[in-house]
């Protein structure tokens, strides 16, 4: 087992400081770019969630376009139903 030299001991706080500074820069960048980052991440999430139904419909014999269209229609219907529930709950509030 090797022993740490004096230079290694001095580099540990330096590495920790650099890691903390990098974390602060990343968080600040995410805060500034939140207007762009949130819709982008939401779109990626929806694309990942919709991939499985599209592939399943394609394996069942539908073309890729029809599979994507049907999945999109089901997703829009689901979002519309959630929106309808929210509007109804606000109207009774």
TrEMBL record:
Principal location listed in the UniProt entry: membrane
Keyword Transcription regulation: no
Membrane topology listed for this record: Multi-pass membrane protein
Alphabetical UniProt keywords: Membrane, Transmembrane, Transmembrane helix
Record's keyword annotation contains Transmembrane helix: yes
Transmembrane stretches, start-end: 12-30, 36-57, 69-90
Signal peptide: none
Full protein name: AI-2E family transporter
A Pfam family assignment: AI-2E_transport
Family to which this protein belongs: Belongs to the autoinducer-2 exporter (AI-2E) (TC 2.A.86) family.
GO cellular component, one term: membrane
Localization terms from the record: Membrane
Superkingdom classification of source: Bacteria
Entries under InterPro entries matching the protein: AI-2E-like
């Amino acid at each position: 087992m090797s022993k740490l030299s004096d230079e290694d001991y001095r580099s540990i706080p330096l590495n920790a400081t650099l890691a903390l500074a990098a974390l602060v820069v990343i968080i600040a960048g995410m805060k500034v770019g939140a207007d762009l980052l949130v819709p982008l991440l939401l779109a990626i999430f929806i694309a990942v969630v919709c991939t499985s139904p599209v592939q399943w419909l394609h394996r069942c014999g539908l073309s890729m376009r029809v599979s994507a269209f049907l999945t999109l229609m089901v997703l829009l219907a689901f979002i519309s139903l959630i929106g309808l529930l929210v509007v109804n709950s606000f109207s009774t509030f």
